[in-house]
């Protein structure tokens, strides 16, 4: 369902953005010298919007939890000296009062706060009437509604300068990422709120510096509005998130190597070609729907048969055979294994659904 929130275009509240827009700076403001030197190098590399954690939401107590108000004083001085904008994370009303007192330009709500509607509402009420821009990270858990809810709560109090940060999700199981990106959730967010600026945080998604470039490029290919990348003058010795921070020099290389794609089809000559390919895709999709309808009528037939013979809908041996053979056929066609596995899990679930309905004498109602 498309929802148009009242949102000011991002270029009206982020000044002198680099192309692509990159927000950078350390995970945490550790010392004045560390913050100052990082920002100075970033500024000379064309970055004009800095990030720094002032209060750190650490999973376990007893680790470095941020320098608080002291760090805000450093930021205020650095902002004046370098003529840059700054964004920091806030999690409660005290943080907001202090951040605004020291002239922080943009606030961000962290992943551990977005999960809690009470906290988000408290923050929204505290920002009301200030016209301060707010970026909202996705919640730790993969829940699109919570993310949308947080954006709506902040927007509802009259904050029109809002954007989302996609920093990945905590899931169980092995992944090459620190926080699984689950790109579909961010794509769904953008489809639901088309005028919402969405920024990718490859640092927290990857959890290591080696994958930052490829993840940033992927985000730009998907049409993201910008990136937030952690940087530090001495990443290995950072007091938090050491593995994922890059030096300002590496950040410059990433920035220079990234390719920004067009989100709109501007050039008429290729627009024609695009339309032709899209028409072909439409035709193929019609064929896919016809074939799914054909498969379902066969599934219905087998459902009737199983009902007569008192057989269970799930026949594990048959399903294992289907799964193996389809993946083999797909690999022969050079298709992606994970994609076909996911697709067949959905098809199989749909087919069980249809058969169960037949067995329970209800009208089949197949939805994917
Ligand atoms: C951060 O940006 O340093 C941070 C704590 O982020 P997140 O809320 O995404 O964990
Ligand atoms: Mn961090």
Summarize the structure.
By secondary structure, this protein is an alpha/beta fold. It has 13 helices and eight strands.
Number of helices: 13
Low-pLDDT residue intervals, each spanning 5 or more residues? none
Q: Structural class, from secondary structure content?
A: alpha/beta
The outline comes out as elongated
End-to-end gap:
17 Å
Amount of beta strand: 5-15%
The helix-strand sequence is EHEHEHEHHEHEHEHHEHHHH
Query: Strand order of the main beta sheet, please?
Result: 1-2-3-4-5-6-7-8
Question: Largest beta sheet, briefly?
Answer: 8 strands, parallel, barrel
Bound molecules: phosphoenolpyruvate, manganese (II) ion
Number of strands: 8
Radius of gyration, whole Å: 25 Å
């Amino acid at each position: 369902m498309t929802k148009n929130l009242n949102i000011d275009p991002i270029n009206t509240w982020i000044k002198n953005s680099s192309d692509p827009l990159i927000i950078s700076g350390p995970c945490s403001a550790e010392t004045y010298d560390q913050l100052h030197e990082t920002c100075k190098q970033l500024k000379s590399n064309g970055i004009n919007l800095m990030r720094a954690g002032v209060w750190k939401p650490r999973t376990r107590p007893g680790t470095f939890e941020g320098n608080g108000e002291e760090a805000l004083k450093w930021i205020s001085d650095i902002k004046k000296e370098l003529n840059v904008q700054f964004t920091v994370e806030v999690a409660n009303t005290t943080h907001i009062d202090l951040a605004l007192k020291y002239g922080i330009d943009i606030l961000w709500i962290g992943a551990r706060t977005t999960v809690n509607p009470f906290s988000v509402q408290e923050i929204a009420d505290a920002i009301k009437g200030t016209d301060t821009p707010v970026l909202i990270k996705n919640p730790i858990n993969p829940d699109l509604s919570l993310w949308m809810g947080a954006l709506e709560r902040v927007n509802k109090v009259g904050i029109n300068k809002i954007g989302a940060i996609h920093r990945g999700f905590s899931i169980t199981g092995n992944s090459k990422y620190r926080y699984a990106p689950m790109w579909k959730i961010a794509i769904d967010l953008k489809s639901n709120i088309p005028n919402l600026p969405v920024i990718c945080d490859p640092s927290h998604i990857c959890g290591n510096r080696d994958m930052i470039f490829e993840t940033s490029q992927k985000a730009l290919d998907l049409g993201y509005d910008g990136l937030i990348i952690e940087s530090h003058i001495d990443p290995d010795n950072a007091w938090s998130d050491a593995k994922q921070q890059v030096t300002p020099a590496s950040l410059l290389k990433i920035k220079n190597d990234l390719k920004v794609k067009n989100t709109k089809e501007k050039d008429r000559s290729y627009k024609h070609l695009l339309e032709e390919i899209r028409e072909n895709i439409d035709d193929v999709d019609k064929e896919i729907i016809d074939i799914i309808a054909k498969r379902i009528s066969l599934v219905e037939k087998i459902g009737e048969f199983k009902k007569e013979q008192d057989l269970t809908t799930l026949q594990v041996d048959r399903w294992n055979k289907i799964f193996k053979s389809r993946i083999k056929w797909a690999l022969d066609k050079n298709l992606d294994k994970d994609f076909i596995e996911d697709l067949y899990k959905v098809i199989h679930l749909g087919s069980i659904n249809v058969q169960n309905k037949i067995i329970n004498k209800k009208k089949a109602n197949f939805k994917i």
